[in-house]
Amino acid sequence: MQLIVTVKKLNKRNRVPAKLTDKDSIIGTVHQGFKFEGTEVTVRDPALGKWYKDRDGYYYWGGGLMVLPAPPNHVIDGLPAHLPADYLLGADLSHYNAQPDWDAISNAGITFVYIKISEGVGTPDRKAATHADNALARGLKTGYYHFCRPDTRNGGTVQKDAIAEANEAVIILQQLPPTTLPLVLDLEDQTSWDTPLQRKDYLTWIETFIHQIIQSTGVTPVIYSRKEYLDRKLPANHTLGKYHLWLANYSVKDTTKLKCPIGWQDWSIWQFTGKAHVGGNAALDLNIMKDLTIITP
Fold it and tell me: Which runs of consecutive H residues, i.e. helices, occur in the chain?
């Protein structure tokens, strides 16, 4: 089992002492936050409490230790290196995932799912309700995302367009099964489309959309995008870094090497591949969630 030191420092001994006050077995100390693999050992005197032995044969008093939860059991090839100890594995789906292999998804250790509900105005995702029903039936933490098309087509101004898209997303949300994860703004380009807005107007559109969602639902949304895209589209002095970031990057293979866009100090979710083969699912998007505050009761 994996253990972590919870006190400021803990004695490292070459054997279990006869008394806790014995000093002759102490060979050093470890400090709070120290992690190691160990096994519980049997002691003759129950008054000594629990003791653990590490792989190198050294002993630690269990009163200063906490047993960490077992690592997730994920049957997935190609997971990134240096994953957080308490991360969650998730997938995201849209109508392009016509017939997902839901049993394979849940059996692979995937515990959360994001589902596309709409794009711009007037384009609801036809598979949203079915995907949500299947995800919820398997006990997966579920949320929805909206593909944003920031422009001025709806109402003639940046603000009116953003409000129109937000209102449409809210209407669609109200028609779908209730979920626990916050709505996500999908901010990216497509082969045939990109936002025509300049940096300042693009920022205004996003801020207006988020404000409208919060006002309508009481829940603060998450922003999804790529680093290079946001760095290119947003003013350098924007203040969107206060919102959770879902970052897409398929080239990085190490969690510690994933860089955030300008304005963010850290990421909350990382979409690390769009081509995972999980059971009968071809080209499935997979994600790592490390900021578990996104999950609401």
Answer: 102-107, 128-137, 158-174, 199-217, 227-233
